[in-house]
Amino acid sequence: MFTTNLKYWRENGVDIVLYLDDGLGMSKNKLESLECSSFVKTSLLEAGFLMNTDKFIFEPVQYLEWLARKLAQVTGEVISMCPVMGSITRLMTRYLHWAIENRVKWDLKLTLECPDCVFNELGFWLNNIQRLNKKHLSGYSFPHVLVYSDASNIAAGAYSIDTDSNIFHQMWTLQESL
C-alpha cells in the first residue's frame, strides 16, 4: 500500500519506518524533522490519502511510546498462555482488558481509570509467570507460517512469512467501517 511512497520518501532523504498504517520518522534535529514531516504529509495528501488528524503526530517529539499498544501486547501474550496456565490468564487480565477497551485512541495518552488494579495485574504476572508455567503442551511445534497483521477503521492488511510472502490489504466499505 505504502511501498511506492516509502521508496519516494527514502529517495528524498526521509528516514522513516512503516508497518501497515503506522509510521515513525526520524531526523537529526527539530528543523529537519519539521521539513521531513511536512514533506511526508504533503506527499500523502497529493497521493489522495485521507488522514485521520487525531491519529497523526506531525510535530517532532523526542520521546514517543505507544503505551496502549504495549499494554495490549502484554495482555495478548498472557492470554495466549491460557492452554498452559488455565483460567487464571482470564481472571488476572480483567483490568488490563478494561484499560485497553476504554482507551480513547491508540496513539493518545493512556488514562487509566483504575491504575492500581492495572499495576496489580501487571505485578502479578511479573512475579508469578514462571511459577505458573508448569503444564507442558503435548504435540506442540513451532508454527510453519508467521502472519503479521494490522487493521484500522478504514482498512486492514497482513503479511505472511514462509509461504510465498503473501501480502493482503483491503479497504473497508462504508458499511464495514461503521
UniProtKB/TrEMBL annotation:
Classify the source by domain of life: Eukaryota
Kindly give the InterPro entries that the UniProt entry links to this protein.
DNA/RNA_pol_sf, Hepadnavirus_pol/RT
Put simply, this protein is called Reverse transcriptase domain-containing protein
Species this protein is from: Mytilus coruscus (Sea mussel)
